[in-house]
Amino acid sequence: MNARAAALALIAWLALPTQAAPLALPAPPDMAFAPIPGKQLPADLSFRDDDGRPVRLQDLSRDRPLVLVPGYYRCTNLCSTVMDGVLESLAQAHLPHDAWRVAAVSIDSHETVATAAAKKPHYGALLAAAGGDLHMLTGDAGTIDALMRAIGMRASPLPDADQIAHPAGFVVVTPDGRISRSFSGVRFDAAALRTAIEQAAAGRVGSPAQQLLMRCVHFDPQTGRYTMTILDGIRMVFLSAFAALGIGWLWHTGRRQRGRPS
């Protein structure tokens, strides 16, 4: 092969399309948060509070609604933000101080009473403004797994990191230990939380439709309003349904009138 032929062969080889190796993306973490309204939490789940005392969830919710916030105490971002949002909303809800109780529950069985006690002062100012009780709980792996199954939560340890991927949210529990309402996100409407606590105190449970609405509608803490685009979408769904019913009724009426003998 002469030099000219070799050069042409090289150019032709370089011009061939190359197949890039597929980009290997890590699998998304296995996590979910789907509490079932009315589900009874296991009565025998026992944890330790930040003072090292054994405590059962049913004892914390026996005389008042319990705001149950899962997370872990070593988390410096999401979990702290969620708890800050809960306490801020409780402070703005203007409920009596004895109307509720908050329990943060570590979903990491390696965390200890000392870990919980070290984290609690972080919430001191917000807790003083809210005026209620805060219990920072830890437990063994079996107890934590049972609670997470009961509240419909799944979490996953992150590879190559001492962190846990988990959804952001919490549940409101009735005094007899049933899930009344759930909230997702990191900032929460104080009026909605107040209503949830009052309903839980009365033993009432939110319907699946209410839960769906709360998940679909985003509360903007900057404006103090729900996202209007989503509300407009909900209005359009209802208006479209009513319009379809009206058109169907007119069409059916017209057919009946045309079918009558003159």
Structural notes for this entry:
About 8% of the residues have low confidence. This protein has a domain of 175 residues: 3-Layer(aba) Sandwich (Glutaredoxin). The longest helix has 31 residues. The relative contact order is 0.15. By secondary structure, it is of the alpha+beta class. The radius of gyration is 27 Å and the shape is globular. The chain has nine helices and 13 strands. Strands 6-5-4-10-11 form a five-stranded mixed sheet. This is Thioredoxin domain-containing protein. InterPro entries: SCO1/SenC, Thioredoxin-like_sf, Thioredoxin_domain. Belongs to the SCO1/2 family.
Distance between the termini: 98 Å
Output the number of helix runs. 9
Query: What is the strand content?
Result: 15-25%
In the sheet with the most strands, the strands line up as 6-5-4-10-11
Radius of gyration: 27 Å
How many strand elements?
Answer: 13
CATH class annotation of one domain: Alpha Beta
In CATH, the topology of one domain is named Glutaredoxin
- Structural class comes to alpha+beta
Please trace the helix and strand order, writing H or E for each element.
Answer: HEEEHEHEHHEHEEEEEHHEEH
Profile the largest sheet: 5 strands, mixed
The assigned CATH architecture of one domain is 3-Layer(aba) Sandwich
Mean pLDDT: 80
Gross geometry: globular
- Helical percent range? 40-55%
| CATH homologous superfamily descriptor of one domain | Glutaredoxin
Residue runs with pLDDT of under 50 for 5 or more positions: 213-233
